């Protein structure tokens, strides 16, 4: 491995340790939560609705993704919506529903935290705290999640380079929290036919440069339900340690991102295909 790549950038002048670098720590970090290990041989599937909408919606979806082979449940209670007039999430009520669904299914939960003032509250209910794309360079928030104990799922900023992404993760590690999972979720390019351009080359590049586990979000990465399964397969083939994807029991009625959410039967079909791809690249997606 070339020294320059290991130092993240050829003209590295960060003037301090690069804790995220493979050079500093060659072994991949395995993030453990609720019996799930992200960064090991198993490819971890995290699935659930974009937003928590009701107990019924979450519970039905959670049970279905579990029987399809998902190992974690996702769902937003605090939603970073582009318009201030659209559904903003159920807040603490949504966090309670997530915990309830986790108790019912045994699936650990990941949910977004948008603000330093929410970190303690979200930490009471979530197993993994998500920092969303829009907040990847919110340095006070990165420091705050770095001082608490729960693992952090850090999504790539929609306009962030790999270098900026890794330095954002460095902020979290630098506060003492080494349990960071990186998530490629697409970047803004000149191409409008997909919601974002899913940068799958980020997967091998990140795994080359860093010791942190890398997962992919094909839902926000494409914005198109029909394209999610094929890009999910491509992500696993590219070496992703996991996937996070949106699944809804009634996508056409979803309050958020229904157009990119898989229906329950589509999720099940995709999982069968994904298992074959994982096996072909020496990984495993466990049966439920
Ligand atoms: C999400 O995962 O719910 C989300 C808002 O994603 P992103 O931050 O990648 O846009
Ligand atoms: Mn969404």
Secondary structure: elements and pairs:
Blueprint: H1 3-6, E1 31-33, E2 36-38, E3 44-48, H2 55-68, E4 72-74, H3 92-105, E5 109-112, H4 119-125, E6 128-131, H5 139-147, E7 152-155, H6 162-174, E8 180-184, H7 202-209, E9 214-216, H8 218-222, H9 228-237, E10 242-246, H10 264-280
Parallel strand pairs: 3-4, 3-10, 4-5, 5-6, 6-7, 7-8, 8-9, 9-10
Antiparallel strand pairs: 1-2
Helix pairs in contact: 2-3, 2-10, 5-6, 9-10
The protein binds phosphoenolpyruvate and manganese (II) ion.
Characteristic terms for this protein:
10 helices; binds phosphoenolpyruvate; disordered N terminus; two-stranded antiparallel sheet; 14% strand; TIM Barrel; single chain; 288 residues; eight-stranded parallel barrel; binds manganese (II) ion; alpha/beta; 35% helix
Can you tell me about this structure?
The protein has one domain (44-80, 87-280): TIM Barrel (Alpha-Beta Barrel). The strands form two sheets. The protein has an eight-stranded parallel barrel with strand order 3-4-5-6-7-8-9-10, surrounded by seven helices. It has a two-stranded antiparallel ribbon with strand order 1-2. Strand 1 and strand 2 (36-38) form a beta hairpin. By secondary structure, it is an alpha/beta fold. The protein contains ten helices and ten strands. Mean pLDDT is 95; it is low at 1-5. Helix 9 packs parallel to helix 10 (264-280). Residues 50, 220, 246, 256-257 line the site of manganese (II) ion.
